[in-house]
Amino acid sequence: MRIIGPDYLVFGVDDLEGSKTYLKDFGLKPVQLDDTGWLYEALDGTGVIIRPKSDPSLPAPLETKNMLRQQIYGVEDAGALDEIEAEMSKDRRVTRLSDGSLEFKDDLGFELRFQVTIRRELSMPAEKINAPGAPAQRAPNELGVTDDMAALPRSLSHVVLFVPDMDKVVRFFCDRLGFVVTDVLTGAGPFLRPQANDDHHTHFFIRTPAYMQGCEHLAFHMGGPTELMVAGDRFVRKGYQSFWGPGRHKFGSNWFWYFNSPLGVHFEYDADMDKHDDSWVAREAPNGPEASQIFLLQWREKWAPSGGPEGGSGA
Amino acid sequence: MSAGQLRLCHRDDIPEGAARGFLPLPDAPRNVIVVNRGGQLHAYMDSCPHYRGGTPMAWRKDAYLDAEGAHIACHAHGALFDIETGACVSGPCLGRKLTRVPLSEAPDGSISVPAQVAGRAARES
Ligand code: FES
Ligand SMILES: [Fe+2]
Q1: Beta strands in chain B (DSSP E)
Q2: How many domains is chain B built from?
Q3: Which parts of the sequence are annotated with region: Disordered (chain B) (predicted)?
Q4: Which of A125, A138, B43, B87 has the lowest CB atom count within 10 Å?
Q5: Separation between Cα atoms, residue A145 and residue A271, nearest integer Å
């Protein structure tokens, strides 16, 4: 099944104004959808949709207080939707909407929608680096950093869910929707990617009690580690709360930086994730600080050595 | 201010119904959250008991309460805590509590906390 990954994640929020400010400051572009709904989009058009939690146009909430209301996935073409409809109609109600997209619930009660993807094709360079022994990636006089450099989320990368029944959810995504497991953190859960996406993961599941079911975090791809650091640094300076990072994960090799949000989930900047094909054999490691990251750093105020007793000025 | 105490603020710095976070020392690992509920001040470590070691809870500077201002909220995964007791009433850390911080108020309205709070990141008990 030619599923690409999440196009949009939909939230019913408590604090609409706070959420709007947050998403804009995170670097997403606001697009008003109707009287009560806003899309905050990354450069390729994927993103987060918010509405007040009482909005009747939202799918039903989870039984927990988690504000995630729907996951909207992009597929390659209408044929993929037909395939999904045929498979899902075997054992559940599937609604075909007027635009051809499909709505149904997964085996744990999460609301899903599948549509022909709205992603716009991006054509922008990745972060360029120079290193001895390799051809320079930046031309002479081309600078690596500038004060006003752009550092905007390019694409919705992945969603992480707290799930009360791991076997059920993995069977559903793998056996019914054709996802594959790329790696497993034992004690937490598996990373998954769909067939039409070579990113290490579009999904990670964490086993939890039923009263926690919901979204743990969502992540946006940045153009490289420097953009990730610059975006995170600017976000901290605006008063937002870093939760974990910056650092670099082992599984997926992606750089990460997580922030708290008024949507009750973490928002992550990520960069430079591994790509895989079907020849990849999933690894397994016990979940914990060692397996989670190759290194972990923490933000601090800018500082420079100067004015010490040795008379160095730092200048 | 007595020995072994660190001044956080003046009582008037926290309006009725509001919460604020203060670093007890510039390099302390965690804020102390002070909430004014009906004129009564309550203080807790900014350290959600959901994940091991405790993690910071606001989504923006001083944004420690839920949208209604009824509970202290962890904006990592939406846990809600009773303002008076610190007990988690909803969300991932049900059955656990925030670590309460004892406040001292001087005659001039200065609010201070025990100095050891500045070295304390993790949730105790
Ligand atoms: S870290 Fe506070 S609710 Fe998860
Ligand atoms: Fe992530």
Answers
A1: 5-10, 19-22, 32-37, 40-45, 72-74, 79-81, 88-90, 104-105, 110-114
A2: 1
A3: 105-125
A4: A125
A5: 17
The Cα–Cα gap between A193 and B1 comes to: 58
CATH code, A3-120: 3.10.180.10
Q: Please list every residue in chain B whose beta carbon sits closer than 8 Å to the beta carbon of residue A262.
A: 59-60, 63, 67, 75
DSSP H helical segments within chain A, as ranges?
Answer: 16-26, 78-88, 166-171, 225-237, 289-292
State the closest ligand 1 atom to the C-alpha of B49, by its place in the atom list counted from 1.
Answer: 2
State which residue of chain B sits closest to A25, comparing Cα positions.
B60
Question: Quick one: which of B77, B69, B98, B57 has its CA closest to A240?
Answer: B57
Angle at A288 between CA A280 and CA A71, to 5 degrees: 65
Per residue of chain A (315 residues), what is the pLDDT tens digit? 999 999 999 999 999 999 999 999 999 999 999 999 999 999 999 999 999 999 999 999 999 989 999 999 999 999 999 999 999 999 999 999 999 999 999 999 999 999 999 999 999 999 999 999 999 999 999 999 999 999 999 999 999 999 999 999 999 999 999 999 999 999 899 999 999 999 999 999 999 999 999 999 999 999 999 999 999 999 999 999 999 999 999 999 999 999 999 999 999 999 999 999 999 999 999 999 999 999 999 999 998 988 766 655 544
Backbone angles phi, psi at A218, to 5 degrees: -135, 155
- Out of A14, A18, A266, name the one closest to residue B76 (CB): A266
Domain-by-domain residue ranges, chain A?
3-120
pTM for this prediction: 0.94
Q: Measure the CA–CA gap between A150 and A147, rounded to whole angstroms.
A: 9
A261 within 8 A of A243, measured Cβ to Cβ = no
Assign residue B20 the CATH number of its domain. Answer: 2.102.10.10
